[in-house]
Amino acid sequence: MTSDDQLCSLEEMEIIYIKKALGFFKGDKHKVCEVLGISLSSLYRKIPKLQEEKN
């Protein structure tokens, strides 16, 4: 991830935003998908990228 004063790629920004949404909605994937306007299958495709960021 990057500091606040640096730019990051759209993919990195997407990961950051999804993580924040998952935290805000306490892991409720259906609510996250509803709010972000993505399908549940799209979210599940992105989950491995979310987990890669932890490492």
How is this structure best described in words?
- It is a single chain.
- With 55 residues, this protein is mainly α.
- The chain has a domain at 27-55.
- Helices cover 69% and strands 0% of the residues.
- It is built from 3 helices and no strands.
- α1 packs across α3 (40-54).
- The longest helix has 15 residues, at 10-24.
- The protein is globular and about 30 Å long.
- The mean pLDDT is 88.
Order of helices and strands: HHH
The low-pLDDT segments are none
Structural class of the helix and strand makeup? mainly alpha
Morphology call: globular
Radius of gyration computed on alpha carbons: 11 Å
Helix content: 55-70%
The number of E-state strands comes to 0
Beta strand %: under 5%
Quote the average pLDDT.
88
Give a short account of the largest sheet.
Answer: none
Query: What is the CA-CA span between the terminal residues?
Result: 11 Å
Helix segment tally: 3
Feature tags:
mainly alpha, 3 helices, single chain
Topology (elements, then pairings):
Layout: H1 10-24, H2 29-36, H3 40-54
Helix pairs in contact: 1-3
Short description:
The protein has 55 residues and is mainly α. It has helices spanning 10-24, 29-36, 40-54.
